[in-house]
Structure formats: C-alpha cells, structure tokens
Amino acid sequence: MEKVNKKLRYLRIALLILAGYFIILPYLFMGPPTSFFSVENGDETSHIVLIKIVNSDNKSIFEESYKLSPHEKAEESKSLWLLSKMTFPLNKNNYTIKATLENNISTEESMSLNPWTSLHISVIDKSVFIDSLQV
Questions:
Q1: pTM higher than 0.85, yes or no?
Q2: Within this chain, do residues 41 and 27 fall inside the same structural domain, yes or no?
Q3: Cα–Cα distance measured from residue 60 to residue 68, given in angstroms and rounded to the nearest whole number
C-alpha cells in the first residue's frame, strides 16, 4: 500500500512540474492572455461584419456577425476551451480567419494563434482588413 501511495505522490509531483512548465511559467513571463480579436469600423457609415474562424481541421470554432456604427469597436475574449487548446504546444494552432462585410467584400488570413496573439479586424473605406498583434 505504501508503494502505491509513493508512486501516486511522484505522479502528482511530475504532473505539477509539467503544468508549471507548460502553463504557469509562460503566464508569469508573458502576462495574462490577450483578447481573441477586436473588430473596428473606421468608416462614416454603419456596417455588418461576419467573422468566421476555423481550425486546421476545417471545423468552425467561432462565427458571429457584428453590426457596428461609425467608429464603433467590439472586442471578443478567448474562451477557456480555446485557451486550453492554444496553451499546449503539441496542438497545431493554425486557424483561418474570414471577415465579410454586408456587401460580400471579404478577406481571409491563415495564421497560428497562441494565448498572447490578438487579431485586429478593421473596416476602412468599405473594405475589411485583418492584422495580428503579438505580445
């Protein structure tokens, strides 16, 4: 019985070290995760922007439309599920981001994301642009 308890104790210590290395240590050096994305309307007219994000398996992880008034900005934070997927280095974190305006003008970018990457989607002159910012 003592051998089993000793093995379980070593297993717990190993798991804590792994969690510290892959989760806690990066947060100490990099700080808290950034927002998932922000979408900003830089035009003088209102726009409806559809944001769709798919992972490398072509599964949709986010799809929502935003109605933005002139010079309005909306921000979306990363879900806990998405943060956990982005944190572990064994996962392929390649995502395709597509932003479409109401007049079917769209842009698409493929990039890798991590907890400290934030997307910035801008509407300027009835066009849409995607940028990524990393801490």
A1: no
A2: no
A3: 23
